[in-house]
Amino acid sequence: MLASAIPFTIAPAAAQAWPSKPIRFVVPYPPGGPLDSVARALAESLRDPLGQTVVVENRPGAGGNLGADNVAKSAPDGYSIVMGAVATHAINPYLYAKMPYDANRDFAPVTRVATVPNVLVMNPETAKELGIGSVEDLVAYARSHPGKLNYASGGNGSAGHLAGELFKAQAKVSMVHIPYKGAAPAQLGLLGAQTDLMFDNLASAAPQIRAGKLKAFAVTTSQRSGFFPELPTVAESGLPGFDISTWFGVFAPAGTPPAIVDRLNAEFGKALASPAIRELLAKLGAEPSPLSPADFAAFVRTEQAKYEKVVKASGARVD
Q1: How far is residue 262's CA from residue 264's CA, in Å, rounded to a whole number?
Q2: pLDDT digits (tens, 9 = 90+) for 175-211
Q3: Which of 11, 55, 201, 277 has the smallest number of Cβ neighbours within 10 A?
């Protein structure tokens, strides 16, 4: 009886003593990107309430898989967490032929951090020439001219590519996918009228939209964006249920004590409510969207079910 009781007495004691040393916060992407910027700001915000330094460690590679796998295989003691994203936990499991981790089994979801809408944009001259002024016009034109329109993306399996594939499936239209080596070159191609349209990240597209160099039709999320409230959603524009976004959130290794996960959830939630973090997210076109660990886990599984179908329909694959 005594032996069987030991695990139940050790875990709460360990959780109560946590944290007693610095916490490693892995970002599975290169320094300087949006996730890196947000992670560093959150790490600074957590230092005082936790009484320990939170050290951001960049481990890029394999579309985010290397950094995520590093944390998945770390000790479940609350001293290693990762800023996961839609790619690492919802897209890559179906995009990569072989994954180094199980996105559900190997992680304890802590909280979603933020969501970033994509926006359907078109080259203004092309839109005017084809008489396209709305999502409804775009769908009507694409249906009557199958295969004539093309759309740019940052590459096979990218968020923009999969948004386009979901759009094609729900609108029942045929458009040609033009993959670029990154979202920035894809946007330049669209600005130069080398392509017709794109599902771009709202933050990167916003300056071009405001300058009149890109024509925005709708955001891809289920709710309108506070940054462009005048823009309808794709769902409002004749494709009900359309909902796709870039999101990111915090995960710990599976087996991390629930008391530690809950503490992390609470502290990240407080940080996300701070004016400084909200201002930083706003500059990225992102909106804070924290969830409880259970709700975040449910959200990830819903996203996986969606992307499994979309990735399969797109034919995208990384071997």
Answers
A1: 5
A2: 999 999 888 899 999 999 999 999 998 888 989 999 9
A3: 55
